[in-house]
């Protein structure tokens, strides 16, 4: 599958058949006494096989079988196949051995290599992944956020279940969950950084606002778990907050720029994200004031910068009208929080 000379439609059909077989295997595993969707015979092997097969499809050019007959231009194999790209990227990530690590790997090693701007260079696909170019980046970006969100939902649900348990949680389970949480935060932060590299792509900004905002909401929901395990995991949690701050600062910039440009796709999303970011600031302040790191916590003023890192005057950012936002909120895009954040506020 994904081999040169193959047929795109045949390979897509093969992927869908493999996915259907996997779903049957998962159903059979869940139907066993005491079983679950991951306990069926060969489920792990089939997941890995499906993920690798999907990855192979994404790495093939398919120029020999374009969607438009007779179109043999460079990159023609993936032209007009955004829906298929979304489907295959989702299969590749979801059924990987470690979906969160896969999201981070694809982001840092591939999405960050996509050329920005305009012209032939920007349209050129990656040599390693012909399905990934400036034109298809928004599709990849959205799907990676969605798949990370699926994993993050599960991680937070597990954390809350452990926190609500009547007996002391198994330390090995807590450690594994803490590691997965830190990995998810790192992956989310890396994804948000992509916005800075492709500031002109509104679809990328809109996806970041939607999915990163929800990620932060769930992060705040999991704070009770970290309160219970603060003594063992204070350094890891502090590192997670610092990592997440890298993303929240960019999201603050997106809010300000979205206000000034007033693009329709952003107008409805930015107010909710602003409220989430403000809650994050004050929830972190309250959290650290209840720990032994209270003296390490600072709230500093951020310089107003655009996505290119250039300083801009704050008064140049007009606010939304009352009809658009409902009410004006305090601390708009200027304050950030976290351990030692005063040292980093102007970075």
TrEMBL record:
<comment type="similarity">
    <text>Belongs to the Fanconi anemia protein FANCD2 family.</text>
</comment>
<feature type="compositionally biased region" description="Acidic residues">
    <location>
        <begin position="320"/>
        <end position="347"/>
    </location>
</feature>
<protein>
    <submittedName>
        <fullName>Uncharacterized protein</fullName>
    </submittedName>
</protein>
<dbReference type="GO" id="GO:0036297">
    <property type="term" value="P:interstrand cross-link repair"/>
</dbReference>
<keyword id="KW-0539">Nucleus</keyword>
<dbReference type="GO" id="GO:0005634">
    <property type="term" value="C:nucleus"/>
</dbReference>
<dbReference type="GO" id="GO:0007129">
    <property type="term" value="P:homologous chromosome pairing at meiosis"/>
</dbReference>
<keyword id="KW-0832">Ubl conjugation</keyword>
<keyword id="KW-1017">Isopeptide bond</keyword>
<dbReference type="Pfam" id="PF14631">
    <property type="entry name" value="FancD2"/>
</dbReference>
<dbReference type="GO" id="GO:0000793">
    <property type="term" value="C:condensed chromosome"/>
</dbReference>
<dbReference type="GO" id="GO:0031573">
    <property type="term" value="P:mitotic intra-S DNA damage checkpoint signaling"/>
</dbReference>
<dbReference type="InterPro" id="IPR029448">
    <property type="entry name" value="FANCD2"/>
</dbReference>
<dbReference type="GO" id="GO:1990918">
    <property type="term" value="P:double-strand break repair involved in meiotic recombination"/>
</dbReference>
<feature type="region of interest" description="Disordered">
    <location>
        <begin position="309"/>
        <end position="347"/>
    </location>
</feature>
<dbReference type="GO" id="GO:0070182">
    <property type="term" value="F:DNA polymerase binding"/>
</dbReference>
